Amino acid sequence: MPKRAREMSAVELKRLCDGVHAVGGVAGLHLQVGPGAGRSWLLRAMVGAKRREIGLGPYPEIGLASARQKAADVRDLIRQGVDPVEQRKVVRTELIAAQKRGILFSSAVDLFTPVKSAELSEGKYRDQWRDSIDKYAMPILGQMLVDEITLQDLLRVLEPIWATKTVTADKLRRKLNEILDFATVKGHRHGANPARWAGNLSMVLPSPSVVSNESNYPSLQLKDVARFWSELKKREGMGAAALRFQTLTATRAGAIRFMRWTEVDLQTRLWTVQPGRQSSKISRRDSPKRIPLTDEMMALLDALPLQPDTDLVFWSPKGGPLSDATMAKLMRGIHAEDIRAGSAGFVDAKTGKSAVPHGTRSTFKVWATERMDYDWNLSEAALWHKLGNKVEQAYARTDMVEKRRSMMDAWEHFLADSEQQDTKILRFS
Fold first, then answer.
1. What string of DSSP letters covers 164-212?
2. What was the pLDDT predicted at 160?
3. Region of 37 on the Ramachandran plot (φ > 0 left; ψ -120 to 50 alpha; else beta)
4. Quick check: 298 and 307 in contact, CB under 8 A?
5. How confident is the model over 248-280, as pLDDT tens digits?
């Protein structure tokens, strides 16, 4: 049996000269004294068949009593069959791996932004995608590790704007959900996504549809359509032509403003907008959108002057695309003139606000489903809305363009009809 060292006192430790000195109290516990008064604790022990020298920390930061306790704890581990040196290596390796996996939320956003940008159809939306993240999320989450972000952290971001800026807050919540999903897939976080809505944030935040103050775009009432159309057709200029074409096609203003002659097939009477085209709001992963051209649409296109320096169908006096305010300004002018003439103007039935170009899409939808008896999906296809659930979308192989052609013919005749009927008209096949 090895000789047991005498237990030294704290005062005796201070008098030790250079070398390695057994201090007693725990077998193998030593104080290592080096040049320049550098001192540290050392435990010498047999671990299996190996002789180990295990560092226990510096002296005097770790006092004598603490060193003896640490040495006793290490001895207990050895008796349990644990090699403290190998255990430390494992812990250190795991720590290094965790540090490599762990990234700040701001870094996760930087990594995810180019991935998301590739999905967005045009530069404007790519530039705007980060705006709400930078404004509302970065001040709170920016310097947090993504793996440490919890539901409570998400609430600190969302709650202040949930009731007052609901649409922005809901979009931000979806972006945060994507970013944290991305971080999880990349191995930077684990566990459930705290930005998930169903069964998570939905339990602590009211539904966006309940608290939102946002309203739909003001639309024309069916009883006012013919009067509005008659006034619009009196207007001249590229803006009036563009507004007429938007109303006839029930498409978005951006799709009209950046429409190009290369998209138009006069032989088949089709206008085709490819995925990702500027201001079309058609995702790059979506299918092309085809619009059947009626007689009125064809006549309108045929009468348009061409601009030698641009392929744009509707162009501004400077040759570029029309401003996004051109058609809205024209519609407001028609509304104001109607009021000056002693009529009620062209206002939304629910809000009383002046109708806007985008609202003519709602007017078309009401006409197709309430005044007429067209299938819901047929009018949805005309509006470029997604049909059904994801499974139904995956198996959809047609956009019903020829069926829509007859529907758009009927819409064209409705616009031009000066004697609006209040009764529902049923379509018979």
1. TSHHHHHHHHHHHHHHHHHHHHTTS--S--TT-TTTTGGGTS--HHHH-
2. 94
3. left
4. no
5. 999 999 999 999 999 999 999 999 999 988 888
Task: Quickly tell me which residue has 């009021």 as its tokens.
Answer: 339
Indicate the SS3 state at residue 323.
coil
- CA dihedral sign of residues 45, 50, 56, 58: positive
Rounded distance between C-alpha atoms, residue 166 and residue 164, angstroms: 6
Cβ–Cβ < 8 Å for 144, 153: yes
* Residue 142: HSE in the Cβ half-sphere, 13 Å Cα cutoff: 10
Helix, strand or coil, per DSSP, at residue 128: helix
CA torsion, ordered 118, 120, 122, 124, to nearest 10 deg: -110
When computed from its CA atoms, the radius of gyration of the chain, rounded to whole angstroms, is 37
CA–CA separation, 216 and 204 (whole Å): 26
Is the distance from CB of 144 to CB of 194 less than 8 angstroms? Answer: no
User: Is pLDDT of 283 > 70?
Assistant: yes
What tokens appear for 395 in the block?
């198996």
Backbone dihedral region of 138: left (phi > 0), alpha (psi from -120 to 50 degrees) or beta?
Answer: alpha
Query: For residue 70, which amino acid is it?
Result: K
For residue 81, what pLDDT band results from cuts at 50, 70 and 90? confident
Distance between CA atoms of residues 294 and 374, nearest Å: 18
pLDDT given for residue 180 in this prediction:
96
Burial tier of 201 (Cβ tally within 10 Å: 0-12, 13-18, 19+): buried
User: First vs last Cα of the chain: how many Å apart?
Assistant: 106
β-pairing, 264-265 vs 270-273, is antiparallel
What is the SS3 string spanning 242-276?
HHHHHHHHCCCHHHHHCCEHHHEECCCCEEEECCC
21 and 31 in contact (C-beta within 8 Å)?
yes
Please name the residues in contact with 387: beta carbons below 8 A apart, sequence gap of 6 or more: 377, 380, 381, 393, 396
Residues 385-420: pLDDT tens digits? 876 555 444 445 578 999 999 999 999 999 988 444
Query: Using one digit for the tens of pLDDT, what is the confidence trace for 319-332?
Result: 899 998 999 999 99
Model pTM? 0.57
Nearest by Cα to 169 from 139, 121, 211: 211
Name all contacts of 232-237 with Cβ < 8 Å and 24+ positions apart.
Answer: 232/334, 235/330, 235/334
